[in-house]
């Protein structure tokens, strides 16, 4: 293979890089919608909506496989360097996080079905809905940060994660109180502890996506270095 | 860069590929040990051991970052093709799964500390220990399958996952029974539901690793195609 690049080849290559970026965003919007609908189905005891979330999970899975395949093709045929290589690696990793979020949405939808026949206190559901909105918001913001290559925006998503963690703790405490009041609450409340744990993990995945965005833009791996270390790298010119 | 390969360059390249393989195995052994020790600490109320698991998590994180960096270097400098490219991609993905398992071990160690001051029924702990052995065994077998590029072994790990899922269901039911018997059991039992959920996810990560092994050897993405589809691809000559 020649390393000289004809204008046509270069345009085609640019198009391929743009295509994986766009497809990540499309996959991200679908996954975000899956979370919101799964939680809606749970809160409104809407079994049909829960089933449609489960049925649509194959779309997320298909995107996972096909974006990965396109990334492998680019690595094999284009031998990308520097920023292009980081884009491909970041896309491979972001897609893995999105797939896991989609998986979480499916699990919430299954919980929605198994819990649909029971009356449960409205205030727990309000808390769960508010936590889901936060987690879905973090995901949306992390994808916006990716779309605009905006490391400041990525960093502010990471900082929001403590809020979702605090909501997780609060709802756990709420659920434990219901269990203590009446043993008949135990079985559904345990199922809801798993739901809120999934939502908490969605916040973590959004943070992972932001770390990949910072890696992509700054060329520095900011995982496991703490918030201060991350902030320093984001602020570096 | 020239595409002709001198013997020296080739030996160096072979060494690099061998090195990332070896380092994945070392990281895998460490992570497996972390799970076993975290669960030991939980079962034996051994706060010191739990703390050492938490303190050693930085080693897992450091391996995560450095193996990833070596993979990026190989992609940038060696422009690997075919099987070599699949090896690098599989390693990037396996490392991400291992990092999450290590994260789970740390969470279990934290639960071990917060639960260390309370008496709890021995039979729940026996069930949890047995489930942890299964999950750690799946991880070990998935890494052996990677070491020997053995797709049959990888497939049999994937088939074991239903056992871990069944143990998860059983222990959940056991825990719910304890909660119903006495409200004073609720708080620790809820914490243990999160521990067994982490163990269940470790089984899932071991399955992911096996899927990456099959991709590496067969060049086919076997995610999301079900056990039958996977078996067919494994058996293809």
From TrEMBL, chains A, B:
Plays a role in the regulation of phosphate uptake. Homodimer. This is Phosphate-specific transport system accessory protein PhoU. Coiled coil: none annotated. Residues 26-111, 128-213 form the PhoU domain. The keyword GTP-binding does not apply. Keywords: Cytoplasm, Phosphate transport, Transport. One of its GO terms (biological process) is phosphate ion transport. Pfam families: PhoU. Its main location: cytoplasm. InterPro entries: PhoU, PhoU-like_sf, PhoU_dom. The lineage of its organism: Bacteria, Pseudomonadati, Pseudomonadota, Gammaproteobacteria, Chromatiales. It is found in: Cytoplasm. Belongs to the PhoU family. GO terms for cellular component: cytoplasm.
